[in-house]
Write a structure and sequence with these properties.
The structure holds two protein chains of two kinds. Chain A is mostly helical. Chain A is built from seven helices and three strands, in the order H-H-H-H-E-E-H-H-E-H. In chain B, a hairpin with a 2-residue loop joins strand 1 and strand 2. The two termini of chain B are about 30 Å apart. The longest helix of chain B has about 35 residues. Classes of the chains: A mainly alpha, B alpha+beta.
Chain lengths: ~140, ~230
């Protein structure tokens, strides 16, 4: 890339880019508050939100995040205390890995040309020759 | 959309076939019309999928430039590089490609994709794949269309080589950006592409030109339309 301007850096992804808005709000509340009950998360979110969310909505969202492995919960009094299981970067990494694969797979009929080819079933000799070529320093044509 | 294909074909044949004469000529006309209608319905299905995919990617990319070639950079840990779009194709590259490939291999990938963009390869590929979907089970037809699809990739590789990329750059990129999702080239295409890459340097120009059969369907639809109005 020498002699060329560096590529524009896309903004770092945030949790809002990879999760729904309610899930992102709940995770942000847990990162701010630490281990918390549903009521505490609800109060934190509703402090800056109109119209306010219902208790059951937050409870459902936290349960969904727990199923996804993004929050942990432990019995606390008559309910559960929730805590974020991952940092924001870890959530982004987990959720974005393969997201494009999934989208491309969903619209497999779309007009696109992929650079990639499927090498898995390729003749081993041909694959070996390709690997040898990759390791050489040939000259431009 | 795909399930509407046979219905559209029947409708097209019913409307266009009605004014024609009778006997063997009429039968041939109907076969041509049915094939053209089936092909057209598949093209429309592919175009609709392209539109939906483009919308799904909205908001996931940021504008970027690699080696002076404009592209859309997507935050994703899987290595992907592709050109998407029918009328105004765009190059999409994931951050993983930038992270795992050296500068020379990145340039080879971008030059390859830029050739696809400038030659509207996505549109050409849906024209070909629509034939594969409709009459591709007829072995000579399927083989011819498959070879032509592989040829699109070989042409893009040759373009990259002619612009200063090395064969080893393309080889490293192919090994790093292996495809696992629909839309990536079949192994049969990969074999033809890699064999071309492994040819001795300087022999690439000896590859025979192939007929751009992807435009055959467009010609058939035009002919069918003229048949209708005559």
């Amino acid at each position: 890339m020498s002699g060329q301007p560096p590529p524009a850096q896309p903004p770092a992804p945030r949790v809002e880019d990879v999760l729904g808005p309610l899930e992102a709000d709940c995770l942000r509340a847990l990162w701010d508050l630490g281990p918390s009950s549903v009521a505490a998360v609800l109060e934190d979110i509703n402090g800056s939100r109109q119209p306010p969310l219902a208790y059951t909505t937050v409870m459902t969202v936290l349960a969904r995040l727990h199923r996804k492995g993004l929050v942990e919960r432990a019995p606390h009094g008559r309910g559960f205390a929730y805590r974020a299981a991952l940092t924001e970067q870890e959530v982004v990494d987990r959720c974005t890995a393969g997201a494009v694969d999934a989208v491309l797979a969903r619209y497999g009929e779309a007009a696109l040309r992929h650079f990639a080819t499927r090498l898995g079933d390729l003749d081993p000799d041909l694959l070996s020759a390709l690997q040898q070529l990759a390791a050489t320093r040939d000259r431009p044509e | 959309m795909a399930s509407m294909g046979p219905l559209l074909a029947l409708l097209f044949v019913a409307i266009c076939g009605a004014p024609s004469g009778s006997g063997p000529v009429r039968a041939i006309e109907l076969v041509i019309l049915a094939a053209a209608a089936a092909w057209l319905s598949r093209v429309l299905a592919h175009v609709a999928a392209t539109f939906r995919l483009s919308r799904s990617l909205e908001g996931r990319w940021a504008p970027g430039s690699i080696q002076g070639i404009e592209c859309r950079v997507i935050t994703d840990l899987s290595a992907q590089a592709f050109v998407l779009g029918t009328i105004r194709p765009r190059i999409y590259v994931t951050e993983a490609v930038i992270a795992i490939l050296d500068a020379d291999a990145q340039r080879a990938v971008l030059l390859h994709e830029d050739h696809h963009r400038r030659t509207r390869a996505p549109l050409r590929s849906i024209l070909l794949e629509s034939w594969m979907d409709s009459i591709g089970r007829i072995p000579p037809v399927g083989d011819m269309m498959g070879r032509r699809l592989a040829r699109l990739e070989q042409d893009a590789d040759r373009h990259a080589l002619s612009r200063g990329a090395r064969r080893s750059d393309l080889a490293r990129a192919l090994l790093a950006v292996e495809g696992h999702v629909p839309g990536t080239a079949f192994t049969g295409h990969a074999r033809l592409r890699i064999e071309a890459l492994l040819e001795p340097q300087g022999s690439a120009s000896t590859v025979a030109r192939s007929v751009p059969v992807e435009w055959l369907g467009v010609g058939m639809v035009v002919a069918a339309t003229l048949l209708c109005v005559s």
